[in-house]
Write a structure and sequence with these properties.
The active site is at 376 (nucleophile). By secondary structure, the chain is α/β, with parallel strands linked by helices. It has helices spanning 18-21, 44-48, 71-85, 96-99, 110-125, 141-147, 154-169, 190-194, 204-229, 251-273, 278-286, 297-303, 323-326, 354-368, 394-412, 461-471, and strands at 11-15, 89-93, 129-135, 176-180, 234-241, 244-246, 308-313, 317-319, 344-345, 351-352, 372-376, 417-423, 443-445, 457-459. Helix 7 packs parallel to helix 9 and helix 14 (354-368) runs parallel beside helix 15. The protein is globular.
């Protein structure tokens, strides 16, 4: 039977990450986490790329995660606003360092466990389904300093203990889980994705793919533990998605676009299909990458694959083998891309491509034949208060409207999608730049790039628009 509308139990909502909203960065026993060492300004990207060795905040730097938007103390107010919009689900992450401050602690931090109990209870009060990410771009700094983070096999054991701890604690409160946020980001921002800091003599590719193997094994162990502890749990992986277009029909361009997509698919191939694909094995061989794989690893990967594919979609990419074409690169996106002459871009240089959303969803479903969950999609933009202290963010509505329409088209194509949590339903600290002026939310937060402001919340024009989208189950997006 042809699906022509959103399923009646479709999980509409929004998505955040602990390190971008909570603040209270050392409150109630929380340990220092990698994101707590990411300042704003020119020093941010060298750290994100793993080029700088540093384990403590510096006095002359501003760290936006330390206060963020203070969701830690204001979550009741914020969840009430999400409930007013009609959220069916809410994606959030647990800060690993709130549960195990050092990562290798013998016992968990009760205050941290209780905090998330309270958040889940508040969501439950409004009938909002939590969708919880175990690792969203944060690693306890102690694990980076003492073990080298995900370079070290021991971190797999620490992560498994953390996963088992939260599964056991929240087994009656959380059904939907994700193991690693945008796991493919490890190859683009290694410190952000895996807490990696490179030494001068290290082979970066070798280090990154070994760390990737450790995360993939940890993901499989989390799936195993999750299903044992919570029999009806749905545990997914998560990809920073967006297909790569060849610039021309030159077969070399087609091949390059396929290779770039496979750089990301590699992770999900393992998590969803349970084994390393042939193209990855060839890549390892041709680049002298030798993974330390323990005897039981391949069996673990094969046996404990994910239940669904979570993915973020903001934009598509384009590539070419023509040196002249490659000179025209878009600005601002973590993923290299040439400018697509058929598409417009956001203020941060991100290509706006709603049809690419439908194409990407089809591509993922064709490849994996597992349910999809759109766990991030949104537009970062500068919002201006008018003379009546309102924000008319019609540009955000336009972006989301066209993407939701294309998600509907994907459903008509037969793609199984279980939910849509748009990114940053409330203004949050940008993961890439650390800015507050790059806003995604339906709710405005009074805070600027320097951390100044009252942190008061107010509704934007898009608040009521998204409310009507949810009320109509995606039928009324105008």
């Amino acid at each position: 039977m042809m699906i022509n509308k959103f399923p009646k139990d479709f999980l509409w909502g929004g998505a955040i990450a602990a390190n971008q909203v909570e603040g209270a960065y050392l409150k109630d026993g929380k340990g220092l986490t990698t994101v707590d060492l990411l300042p704003t300004g020119e020093n941010r990207f060298p750290i994100m790329l793993g080029k700088v060795e540093n384990y403590t905040p510096q006095e002359n730097e501003f760290y936006p995660s330390h206060e963020a938007i203070d969701f830690y103390h204001r979550y009741k107010e914020d969840i009430a606003l999400f409930a007013e919009m009609g959220f069916k689900s809410f994606r959030l992450s647990i800060s690993w360092a709130r549960i195990f401050p050092n990562g290798d602690d013998k016992e968990p931090n009760e205050a941290g466990l209780q905090y998330y109990d309270d958040v889940f209870d508040e969501l439950n009060k409004y009938g909002i389904e939590p969708v919880v990410t175990l690792a969203h771009f944060d690693v306890p700094v102690h694990l980076v300093k003492e073990y080298g983070s995900w370079k070290n096999r021991k971190v797999v054991d620490f992560f498994e203990k953390y996963a088992k701890t939260v599964f056991t604690r929240y087994k009656n409160k959380v059904k939907y889980w994700l193991t690693f946020n945008e796991i493919n980001m490890l190859l683009h921002l290694p410190y952000v994705g895996a807490g990696l800091i490179f030494k001068e003599d290290e082979d970066k590719q070798q280090v990154m793919y070994q760390a990737a193997h450790h995360q993939l094994v940890a993901s499989a162990l989390a799936v195993k533990a999750g299903h044992e502890i919570i029999p009806d749990a749905q545990i997914g992986c998560m990809l920073a998605a967006g297909m790569t277009y060849p610039y021309s029909c030159n077969p070399d361009d087609i091949q390059k676009a396929m290779d770039q997509d496979r750089e990301s698919f590699f992770f999900i191939d393992v998590q969803s299909r349970g084994e390393y694909p042939g193209y990855a094995k060839r890549f390892f061989e041709e680049n002298d990458i030798e993974l330390a794989i323990e005897p039981n690893d391949e069996e673990l990967l094969k046996k404990y694959t994910v239940d669904y594919i979570g993915f973020s979609y903001y934009s598509s990419r384009a590539t070419s083998t023509d040196p002249e074409v490659l000179k025209d690169q878009t600005a601002g996106n973590v993923f290299d891309s040439i400018t697509n002459p058929y598409l417009e871009a956001s203020e941060w240089g991100w290509t706006i491509d709603p049809k690419g959303f439908r194409i990407t969803a089809n591509q993922l479903y064709d490849r994996y034949q597992k349910p999809l969950f759109v766990v991030e999609n949104g537009l970062g933009a500068v919002d201006q208060l008018n003379e009546d202290h309102e924000i008319k963010d019609d540009y955000r509505i336009a972006y989301l409207r066209e993407h939701i329409k294309q998600m509907g088209e994907a459903l008509k194509d037969g793609v199984e999608i279980i939910g849509y949590t748009s990114w940053g339903p409330i203004d949050i600290v940008s993961a890439s730049t650390g800015e507050m002026k790059k806003r995604y939310g339906y709710i405005y937060v009074d805070r600027d790039n320097d951390g100044k402001g009252t942190l008061s919340r107010s509704k934007k024009q898009s608040f009521d628009w998204y409310k009507q989208v949810i009320e109509s189950n995606g039928e009324n997006v105008e």
